[in-house]
Amino acid sequence: MTFKEDFLWGGATAANQLEGAWNVDGKGISISDVCTSGTRYKSKQIIPDLNPAYEYPSHEAIDHYHRYKEDIALFAQMGFKVYRFSIAWTRIYPTGEEDKPNEAGLQFYDNLIDECLKYNIEPLVTVSHYEMPYILTEKYNGWASRKMIDLYLKYFETIVRRYKGKVKYWLPFNEVNSAVAKFGAFLSQGILNGGSKDFMNQVDIPQLRFQALHHQFVAQAKATKLAHEIDENNKIGSMTIYATTYPMTCKPEDMLATQHMNRLMNYLCPDVMIRGEYPTYAESLYKDLGVEIKFEDNDKELLKEGTVDFFAFSYYMSSCATADPNVERVEGNILTNVKNPNLETSEWGWQIDPKGLRYSLNEIYDRYQLPIMLVENGLGANDIMEEDGSIQDDYRIDYLREHIQAMKDATEDGVDLIGYTTWGCIDLVSASTGEMAKRYGFIYVDKDDEGKGTLNRIKKKSFDWYKQVIETNGEKL
């Protein structure tokens, strides 16, 4: 077989996009809880006074908080070997500054993890996935403040000790390099500048973004070291967006633009988290951005001591790079890049490039020589229910089939790929726009963009297809 016998097949979600129950059992307000719903390509607004005139999609989401047993049972029917989910920071420490954790929040994740283990599903836990306490944004401007390191470590230590022996795979931050894109600063770092209510178009201060990123590097290194001390079986991953980028032409200027994009987006963060130090090119990158990172006395030692065990990443699309400013651009997963005329796009304009996944896996493994998990990959589409109640999502099957074939090809190239979790294995709220219409799941959830629906779970055609993929360990696509 191409894939290892113990290959981890599964799916991925995030707490703020499916749990709901935003103010239940002592949970505090997260940055996602103050974001309104949006529409395609339109930014979401931040309304911290929770004005009832607006729709807040995370407040109910798909109510996984009360229906997790039903959902995990469906994942088990597909044969999941692993389930990637995030823990909501504000369920454990409602404001982030409490001395003691919220027991009700801890117990919920005990129950969720136990439900996974009942079906022999390995938990893969994201510790911080775009849902930090909103109060820390107001008080400290998020990760722009170094105070966040100790607050995060208190939270991290609490859950790693609590779930010792139950969870061994941990991702300290989701898509930590999303802060490289200026409107990723709010999602990943809780940074708001200029009093903007529009996190996609706020005033940008690169110095704050990249200093905040440094604080996250230090926090992740400390967390990794701590997790290894608590349990030698813990495995910690670096989780980033992999923004596969091709030169638009063979002009030397486009080659240099591509190299710059790869260094800034694809390599900077993993280089620090895996190699334990800033790469030599970082000085040039930061100089061009007008950024000067402030190090504390022992930061360099901490980065060296807290390197990760595996490489985790999201892959949805590829794009191009060019020195020409007058070319067509496309949106996709927080980034705005140059359109590749050779690729088709999804309904939401994301370019579809399965062969780019094979290329990317080889590039990653050649550079880092660490086991790799692809922890996000999928197709957002407007699924239509037929008159007979079925959802014939052949387009999703085609997308996933081609990407899994690319994984097989990369494995045969020699890449050490150990797991694959499709994004949004059950329909959930889109992170970028707050829509339900942009669906990724194998399981349809009856809810629309206006918040109407029964929340009933319905298997799509892709459900049985993915079940077959898992049963045959990827041999039958």
TrEMBL record:
- Read off the InterPro entries from this record: GH, GH_1_N_CS, Glyco_hydro_1
Query: Mind telling me which Gene3D superfamilies this protein's record contains?
Result: Glycosidases (3.20.20.80)
A GO molecular function term, named singly, is: 6-phospho-beta-glucosidase activity
Q: What is any Pfam family matched here?
A: Glyco_hydro_1
Q: Which UniProt keywords apply?
A: Glycosidase, Hydrolase
Q: What is its EC number?
A: 3.2.1.86
Q: Which family does it belong to?
A: Belongs to the glycosyl hydrolase 1 family.
Q: What is the name of this protein?
A: 6-phospho-beta-glucosidase
**Species, as recorded:** Breznakia pachnodae
